[in-house]
From TrEMBL:
<dbReference type="GO" id="GO:0006508">
    <property type="term" value="P:proteolysis"/>
</dbReference>
<dbReference type="InterPro" id="IPR008915">
    <property type="entry name" value="Peptidase_M50"/>
</dbReference>
<keyword id="KW-0472">Membrane</keyword>
<protein>
    <submittedName>
        <fullName>Zn-dependent protease</fullName>
    </submittedName>
</protein>
<keyword id="KW-0482">Metalloprotease</keyword>
<dbReference type="InterPro" id="IPR044537">
    <property type="entry name" value="Rip2-like"/>
</dbReference>
<comment type="similarity">
    <text>Belongs to the peptidase M50B family.</text>
</comment>
<keyword id="KW-0812">Transmembrane</keyword>
<feature type="transmembrane region" description="Helical">
    <location>
        <begin position="180"/>
        <end position="196"/>
    </location>
</feature>
<dbReference type="InterPro" id="IPR052348">
    <property type="entry name" value="Metallopeptidase_M50B"/>
</dbReference>
<feature type="transmembrane region" description="Helical">
    <location>
        <begin position="96"/>
        <end position="117"/>
    </location>
</feature>
<keyword id="KW-0645">Protease</keyword>
<keyword id="KW-1003">Cell membrane</keyword>
<dbReference type="GO" id="GO:0008233">
    <property type="term" value="F:peptidase activity"/>
</dbReference>
<dbReference type="Pfam" id="PF02163">
    <property type="entry name" value="Peptidase_M50"/>
</dbReference>
<feature type="domain" description="Peptidase M50">
    <location>
        <begin position="132"/>
        <end position="170"/>
    </location>
</feature>
<keyword id="KW-0862">Zinc</keyword>
Length: 228
């Protein structure tokens, strides 16, 4: 019990940036959808900074907590913001802007967090040290969320961007993958590594796909925030 109590400050330092990142990610989708003609999310009260409107009990709370305590890695999702793409002014083009809004706000959050981190001292103690740690977590969480969502597989944002910009011959088959997209991702990121551990082969697709772009984006943020 004492060990768990000791970890509460760090758990909170992880939870707050993660909830903020997910909340603003989803709200940004709804805001841009309204701007481009579809107010579905707005009418349902999903264009809000209230995290309770976006939290999925399993994907946002239970699964991330289980993974944090068992693997140290945090993965989860929020309730997706409903968008009626047919109501957008220019459905195919505007779908791209709606999709990019989520990763875009995550990049902004990561950049602002890095700028604030640069204003804190590395000798900070108490609440100052906690705040500095939370900012570090915020940079990493937002960059990982941005990069993950830009994977070009529907229903991720990157998949919707790809469907919107690719020629029809490629866009239509990719769009039809949406019903299987989450199963593909879960299999690639969780099932394959489990199989790899059993057969003694590194099948950690997560590190292959996310590692290099996450490192690159963090390097860019360091430069832009003056922390390089």
């Amino acid at each position: 019990m004492d060990g768990l109590i000791d970890r509460i400050p760090m758990i909170v330092a992880v939870a707050i940036p993660a909830i903020l990142a997910i909340t603003l990610h989803e709200a940004a989708h709804g805001f841009v959808a309204k701007w481009r003609g579809d107010d579905t999310a707005w009418q349902l009260g999903r264009v809000t900074l209230n995290p309770l409107r976006h939290i999925d009990p399993f994907g946002t709370v239970i699964l991330p907590a289980l993974m944090y305590f068992t693997t140290g890695f945090v993965f989860g999702w929020a309730k997706p913001v409903p968008v009626n793409f047919a109501r957008l002014h220019y459905p195919r083009r505007d779908m791209v802007w709606v999709a990019l809004a989520g990763p875009g706000i995550n990049f902004v959050l990561a950049l602002v967090s890095a700028m604030l981190w640069g204003l804190t001292g590395d000798q900070a103690e108490g609440i100052g040290a906690w705040f500095r740690a939370a900012l570090e977590v915020s940079v990493l969480v937002n960059v990982v969320l941005m990069v993950f969502n830009l994977i070009p597989i529907p229903p991720l944002d990157g998949g919707r961007v790809a469907v919107g910009v690719l020629p029809d011959a490629l866009a239509f088959p990719l769009a039809r993958l949406e019903r299987f997209g989450m199963f593909i991702l879960l299999g690639a990121f969780f099932l394959l590594p489990m199989i790899g551990r059993e057969i003694g082969v590194n099948l950690n697709v997560m590190s292959w796909v996310l590692g290099p772009p996450v490192d690159w984006v963090i390097d860019v943020i360091r430069v832009l925030s003056g922390n390089s």
